Amino acid sequence: MTGGQMAPTTILGQEATTAPMGRDPKLHGHPIDISRMLAVCDGAVYIERCTLASIKQIRQAKKAIRKSFQCQLDHLGFSLVELLSPCRPIGSSRPRRLLPG
Question: Parallel, antiparallel, or unpaired: how do β-strands 44-51 and 78-84 relate?
Answer without folding.
Answer: parallel
